[in-house]
Amino acid sequence: MRTPRTTIRRKLILAIMLTSTTALALAGTALTIHEVTSLRALLARELATRAAILAANSTAALAFQNPEDASQVLAGLRTDPSIVAAALYDARGGVFATYPMGASAPLVPAAAGAMGNRLERASLLVSRPVMEGNRRLGSLFLRSDLRALDERVRAQVMAILVAVLGSMGVALALSAWLQGGIAQPVRILAETAKAVLDRKDYSVRARAVSDDELGVLAEGFNDMLAEIQRRDAELEQRVADRTAALEASNKELEAFSYSVSHDLRAPLRAIDGFSKALLEDCGDKLDQVGTKHLDRVRTATRQMGQLIDDLLNLARISRAELRRERFDLGAVGKEIAAELKRAQPEREGVQFVIAEGMTVVADTQLLRVVLDNLLRNAWKFTAKHPTARIELGQHRDNGHRVFFVTDDGAGFDMAHANLLFAPFQRLHRQSDFEGTGVGLATVQRIIHRHGGQLWADGAVERGASFSFTLSEVKS
Amino acid sequence: MDLLRRLLLGLTLSIAVLCAEGGAAGAEGRMTREYDMKAIFLFQFADFVNWPASTCPDTLTPITIGVLGNDPFGAGLDEVVAGETVGARKLVVRRFRTVEQVDSCHVLFICASEAGRLEHIHAKLMGRSVLTVGETKDFAARYGIVGFDVQRNRLKLRINVAAADSAKLTISSKLLRQAELVASKG
């Protein structure tokens, strides 16, 4: 099970933080813009109010030509450091009084200008008429330093920034706390799944930690594990039952075939013995045809005897205990080859090639049966060729030792290879090559009992090759 | 700084006065300017004084500025007042020879020529809502409500608030700020 590249925990925190930060940034920006605009508007309003009060307070001073009083009224501006200069003009537009006293251009205009508000670099300039009733007595000029406003804007923005950062901190803490409700159960579930897969242990259960869909998921997961566990136990029980039944029936079958084969021998011996006696004792009374029939009877009897021997062998091999010992497979092969040559010395064209150093740890008796069968087969299926080459050797394949017996005889059709190792199955006619069809089945059983594999390669009239492995057992 | 500025101002004015007193024409010019100023002041009072409703039967009743005695303004006062209004009220100038002639009047300027009859005039106008303005010494303290006083080429105001109160006149505090307040004498 692969380890995830990112975690739900991180994704959740990221999602929450992205959402809240975006919202906070937007709100902060909107708030800042609003603050700046409203601060400017507030300043303009404040200035307008201040100018109105100043104008109202200056009417009499202008009406009765009292610049000292006008200067005093303007001096009241000292309390507001953002107003850097002010001036009163009489009805003809001449300077009447200034703040600070003696201020002149460019701080205050030398003559009254146009009425209204005007922005000039870092200053807001306000000019308004001074009226008493509907009579215009003069005008008032105020110069306000916007740097004070900037200062206030900066303070506001700083406050908003601090609030946004603080909120982000709180959001981070909250998201770290909230994500636990989702990420924790998922993590527990993932860990449980990993534990089940890694240890193949279906008795592990996910801890249920939440009562939401994740809780349902964990419950479902646990139910599935319980079901798997139940089926596992059931399957194991079934396999055990079937194996036991199979073993019992196998034993029965072997006992049956053994006793049948054994019991068949006695009548067979009688047939063989009496047909031999008939030939010896009454041979002169039989004509050529009778003698020939009796010979056929004896050959068939011998064949049947061989078949019974093979069957008994097969049964014995299946039941006999393996007695492993170290020996050289090549030496056994050479003995068998010598035996074959002795039996048919007329086949001088057959050449045996047997490799050296094929030491194995196996049951000597059974391996002798294997080699006897394979070499005898090779000997048999090369009989129709004047010359033949039969090889017993080994090679390494993927670190395993593979032994083989190869000939260049009649071979077989690979299409029927699956029939080779089944008992009583033959690929050639009895008239072409003698045999009972039990040999290769015996060989396969011995190899399997040694924990090895047996397989064949071949082609018609191109020879055959039988290979087998043995489970390597350290002696 | 303030001291230096005052010294400079004083010096400038002294030179101006010396030059002005250089000839008869100069003296006349100075007088004309002084009465122009006084005319403006008389006219401005209308904005800063409230008369009781009885003196103004309706909102269109004009505000009358009266001149008692030998008129020193010439056409100056008429020119100042011409076309001006206070709210919807027009301003009119009327001239009286004697105090007995004074019937409907809001602001009454008592000329220097009446200096000998001030006691009589004061008595005659007692209890009437007329803003009396004079230019003789102690006028505000003894015979009226507002006194003009020329000091160093500048026109100063003296106001007798008690007299204004008994005449049922309300004088704006803004105007009072511009004046020296005096108490009644004798």
UniProtKB/TrEMBL annotation, chain A:
<protein>
    <recommendedName>
        <fullName>histidine kinase</fullName>
        <ecNumber>2.7.13.3</ecNumber>
    </recommendedName>
</protein>
<dbReference type="Pfam" id="PF17152">
    <property type="entry name" value="CHASE8"/>
</dbReference>
<dbReference type="InterPro" id="IPR003661">
    <property type="entry name" value="HisK_dim/P_dom"/>
</dbReference>
<dbReference type="GO" id="GO:0016020">
    <property type="term" value="C:membrane"/>
</dbReference>
<keyword id="KW-0812">Transmembrane</keyword>
<keyword id="KW-0418">Kinase</keyword>
<dbReference type="InterPro" id="IPR036890">
    <property type="entry name" value="HATPase_C_sf"/>
</dbReference>
<dbReference type="InterPro" id="IPR050351">
    <property type="entry name" value="BphY/WalK/GraS-like"/>
</dbReference>
<dbReference type="InterPro" id="IPR003660">
    <property type="entry name" value="HAMP_dom"/>
</dbReference>
<keyword id="KW-0597">Phosphoprotein</keyword>
<dbReference type="Pfam" id="PF00672">
    <property type="entry name" value="HAMP"/>
</dbReference>
<dbReference type="GO" id="GO:0000156">
    <property type="term" value="F:phosphorelay response regulator activity"/>
</dbReference>
<dbReference type="InterPro" id="IPR036097">
    <property type="entry name" value="HisK_dim/P_sf"/>
</dbReference>
<dbReference type="GO" id="GO:0030295">
    <property type="term" value="F:protein kinase activator activity"/>
</dbReference>
<keyword id="KW-0808">Transferase</keyword>
<keyword id="KW-0472">Membrane</keyword>
<dbReference type="InterPro" id="IPR003594">
    <property type="entry name" value="HATPase_dom"/>
</dbReference>
<dbReference type="Pfam" id="PF00512">
    <property type="entry name" value="HisKA"/>
</dbReference>
<dbReference type="InterPro" id="IPR005467">
    <property type="entry name" value="His_kinase_dom"/>
</dbReference>
<keyword id="KW-1133">Transmembrane helix</keyword>
<feature type="transmembrane region" description="Helical">
    <location>
        <begin position="157"/>
        <end position="178"/>
    </location>
</feature>
<dbReference type="GO" id="GO:0000155">
    <property type="term" value="F:phosphorelay sensor kinase activity"/>
</dbReference>
UniProtKB/TrEMBL annotation, chain B:
<dbReference type="InterPro" id="IPR025293">
    <property type="entry name" value="YfiR/HmsC-like"/>
</dbReference>
<protein>
    <submittedName>
        <fullName>YfiR family protein</fullName>
    </submittedName>
</protein>
<feature type="signal peptide">
    <location>
        <begin position="1"/>
        <end position="20"/>
    </location>
</feature>
<dbReference type="Pfam" id="PF13689">
    <property type="entry name" value="DUF4154"/>
</dbReference>
<keyword id="KW-0732">Signal</keyword>
